[in-house]
Amino acid sequence: MARKGLIQREKKRQKLEQKYRLIRRSLKNELRKVTSLSEKWEIYRKLQSPPRNSAPTRLHRRCFETGRPRANYRDFGLSGHRLCEMVHTCLLPGATRSSW
Hints:
Blueprint (H helix, E strand, L loop, with lengths): L3 H30 L3 H12 L23 E2 L4 E2 H9 L12
Antiparallel strand pairs: 1-2
Helix pairs in contact: 1-2
């Protein structure tokens, strides 16, 4: 289980990203339309003004059950370890264990 503080920090980042998403998107659209270099620099400065944690690249996908930050499967929202355990106990319908 991940430390609760790390999980809360990730949730805070998600809220910040949601809050500033439209602002970032509109500034990037303006940046594509502008041709003069001085105006582009001004828009870049505006893009740097929101908090760092509001950037989408700072988000990290975590396991839904354990909060583990690595080896996550997007389709299930689980880490590989929990996914393997759930498949072995037949809790995921349609998922089969590999055998060769």
